[in-house]
Amino acid sequence: MSIRHALLALLSEGPKYGLQLRQEFEARTGEVWPLNVGQVYTTLQRLERDSLVESDGAEDGPQTQKGFRITGDGEAELAAWLLTPPDLSSPPRDELVIKVLIAAQLPGVDARQVAQAHRRYLVQLMQEWTRLKEYAADRDLGFGLAVDAELFRLDAVVRWLDAADGRIKRASLERLDADRAPLPKLPRKAVVRP
Amino acid sequence: MTVLELREVSKVYGDGPAEVHALADVSMTVDDGELVAVMGPSGSGKSTLLTIAGTLEEPTRGQVLVGGAAVSGMSRNDRARLRRRSIGYVFQDFNLLAGLTAAENVSLPLELDGMPGKPARAAGLRALEELGLGERAASFPDELSGGERQRVAIARAVVGERRLLLADEPSGALDSANGEAVMRLIRAACHSGVGGVVVTHDAQLASWADRVVFLRDGRVVDQTAPIPGPESLLAPER
Ligand SMILES: Nc1ncnc2c1ncn2[C@@H]1O[C@H](COP(=O)(O)OP(=O)(O)OP(=O)(O)O)[C@@H](O)[C@H]1O
Ligand SMILES: [Mg+2]
Asked: For the segment B13-57, what is each residue's pLDDT rounded down to a tens digit?
């Protein structure tokens, strides 16, 4: 979450005071992404230094009482940021994937049971988000969007677990078949040939 | 109160080498007002479980109790009445009658149960209106979109004084907005006291339930803990 661009977005609605920015920032994102509000003020200072916002308060007066306004450069920065895809090209190192991968290769570990333990936890989390959505999503568009994003993210992980479960099941059935089948005959010609 | 109880229910299809153990020793209870989701992959026995709970099929072993009464002890007629009067069923493929309008599809179970045509049709229309389909009441199923057909199927399942609502993959091929709308309708029925079971492979659908039971290869392997009420999850109003 970029605080810098979230503040620019708030200021693109119109000029605001420092305290007001802090409160709106908290109200709009805090419930889903709790953030360190001290960062709001340091970020405002940097935005001003980079000429993306202007303030009309006294040079060294308290940040809370300064009024802030977005500049033309700030508008351009915000528009460019909205359209720039975040880097999703390299897979993140995913702890859950690693756990299931290891479980699937350790003898004596039931990998499907491991998958189920994670599935239960994820579905429980999804139930909690869905309950919030049921009661609160219509009150606040931003909140509804953020909850959906979380639900789709968790859902994707559950679906991966389902696919993994099927793959592990098929692999273990094939292993059983292979154990029962007689050893393959050695290709004779290949052995005889000089 | 418990509206549905399955006691060590097993189902075997076919015999000899063709035997399929679709369900094995499944036990579960559903209270009134509670929504339970049964989640499992394709072929895990979800539809089998639901048809047995809906008394559409008999278990090979075990007992089914609806509203405390054992289904196996009922006469054919009593069972048929139970199905018409107390159990609403949403089929995996909707199962609307093509020759009837949306309103007629919804009022059919009431009429079959002996309600005169006029009040039955009025109740059917009201159920459709509640689901935002009042204007489509005179349409035939093939004139409705998939999402609308699904809502008609739900209206038909909740109309009258049903105590148990059983839904098989109720969002089928619907997009997520329609899937959410369908689950809100089912939740609303449960808030009014109906006990509900939704079977699905979809975690987003299942997450609308109070409790999620996991089915694998015909067995219940796990379930989620009941989740706390919304009051404890929502941050206090600012
Ligand atoms: N009438 C039947 N005769 C024989 N086998 C059946 C019958 N109905 C279901 N089965 C088998 O029982 C098992 C469980 O089927 P069921 O329809 O309950 O699965 P499901 O979980 O609903 O799957 P899906 O998600 O694909 O709908 C499957 O192996 C299926 O082939
Ligand atoms: Mg099915």
From this structure: 998 888 999 999 999 999 999 999 999 999 999 999 999 999 999
Split at pLDDT 50, 70, 90, the class of B222 is very high
Cα-to-centroid distance, B53 and ligand 2 (Å):
14
Report percent pLDDT > 90 for chain A: 46
Domain B2-96+162-234: CATH class, spelled out: alpha beta
* A 66-125 → B contacts, CB under 8 A: 112, 116, 119-120, 122-124
| Closest Cβ–Cβ partner in B184, B224, B234 for A136 | B234
Tell me if A122 and B230 make a contact (CB, 8 A cut-off). Answer: no
DSSP B79-106: HHHHHHHTEEEEBTTB---TTS-HHHHH
Which amino acid does the sequence have at B230?
Answer: P
Tokens of B47: 């539809």
pLDDT above 90 covers a percentage of chain B that reads 67
Distance A194 CA to ligand 2 centre (A): 60
User: From the alpha carbon of B11, which atom of ligand 1 is closest?
Assistant: 12
Selection from A25, A29, A8, A39 nearest residue A145 by Cα: A29
Weakest-pLDDT range from A33-37, A80-84, B43-47, B176-180:
A33-37
Contact B209, B36 (CB under 8 A): yes
Residue whose entry in the numeric block shows the structure tokens 């090979």: B60
Interface predicted TM-score of the whole assembly (ipTM), two decimals: 0.86
Q: Which two tokens stand for residue B122?
A: 């009025």
Q: Whose CA is nearest to atom 2 of ligand 1?
A: B13
